[in-house]
Specification:
It is an enzyme of class 6 (ligase). The chain has 322 residues and is of the alpha+beta class. It has 13 helices and 13 strands. The longest helix is centred in the first third of the chain and has 17 residues.
Length: 322
């Protein structure tokens, strides 16, 4: 059982949200929900954007801890975490190095594969190589090597932006073009049919522990941006409708992925459970969404925990490191 840690009521927390990525609106929604939850838990909390005024503000009046509710590159590629380290400001979540690794999906998948954690076969293709080597020839080879259907998504990015399932080889060029609109490198991986689940991992002082898996059932069959953030387009089941033995295997796989990437405090591991009950890790998110339709808060609720108290516990861990 996960236990929440106590935190002093005079702890001052700064929630960072917004940024300039494609996920700015989602980040602001996450930030507002985190802010409200922290205040409800009795902490002093404020929210601000990660802009040119941030560093002077941190130097003039540093908070006791930062909660990063930024999605996209700013919150997940490690750069902001590195700056916070330079400023001596503790923050919730993994360090800069682990964040950079998890942010780059091909690198993360390679690390998972080395650790013996199942993840679908893939090819990472930069736009320049795609053009230089001849699009038609490259796409033909990808289809021959990985088979159909395929999942195409940006190598760096989140919220389902630029991602699509390709079931017909004729649709692959358009999927690549859509992907390149969001990133210069496309990740093309073998599509695994099955149950789409997410497992959030949190550490409140007794080591990282998986929360109940959330089963994701998008109405149109694809968990894209609209399905993630538009009410009524997706149904979630918490806990996921899994056989107990399969649920335990999913939880242990998510925990193994969290540890293999060197993460801390919290993460969200996205997986597919195939027809044989075997989990396959798709990606790991170090700055999970915190909106009203996000998966980590749903998992916290399914575990019988209070969202604000969980966040307060994570803040307590961050301030202890500081």
């Amino acid at each position: 059982m996960i236990k929440s840690m106590g935190t002093e009521e005079d702890v001052r927390v700064l929630v960072l949200a917004g940024g300039l990525s494609y996920e700015r609106d989602v980040s602001l929604r996450s930030g507002r929900r985190v802010l409200d939850a922290l205040r409800a838990a009795g902490l002093q909390a404020d929210m601000r954007d990660a802009d040119v005024a941030l560093l002077p503000a941190l130097q003039e009046d540093p908070p006791d801890a930062v909660v990063i509710a930024l999605h996209g590159a700013t919150g997940e590629d490690g750069s902001l975490r590195g700056v916070l380290d330079l400023c001596g400001v503790p923050y919730v979540g993994c360090d800069a190095r682990a964040s950079r690794l998890a942010w780059d999906k091909p690198s993360a998948k390679a690390m998972l594969r080395e650790a013996g954690i199942p993840t679908p076969d893939w090819v990472a293709l930069p736009h320049d190589r795609f053009s230089e080597l001849g699009a038609v020839a490259v796409l033909d080879r990808i289809a021959d090597r990985l088979g159909l259907p395929l999942m195409v998504k940006p190598a760096q990015g989140g919220s389902g932006l630029g991602a699509s399932v390709v079931r017909d080889e004729a649709d692959l060029p358009a999927a690549m073009v859509g992907c390149f609109a969001y990133d210069s490198t496309a990740l093309v991986e073998r599509y695994v049919a099955g149950m789409d689940v997410a497992v959030s991992v949190v550490d409140l002082g007794d080591g990282p522990q998986p929360l109940p898996a959330v089963e994701i059932v998008p109405r149109n069959g694809v968990y894209d941006y609209a399905a993630r953030y538009t009410a009524g387009l997706t149904t979630w089941h918490t806990p996921a409708r899994l056989d107990p033995a399969v649920a335990a295997r999913v939880a242990s796989t998510a925990l193994a992925a969290h540890e293999a990437l060197g993460l801390r405090d919290l993460s969200r591991v996205d997986l597919i459970v195939d027809g044989e009950g075997e989990p396959h890790v798709l990606e790991v998110n170090v700055s999970p969404g915190m909106t009203e339709t996000s998966l980590l808060p749903l998992a916290v609720q399914a575990a019988g925990l209070d969202f604000g108290k969980v966040l307060a516990g994570l803040v307590g861990r961050a301030t202890a490191r500081g």
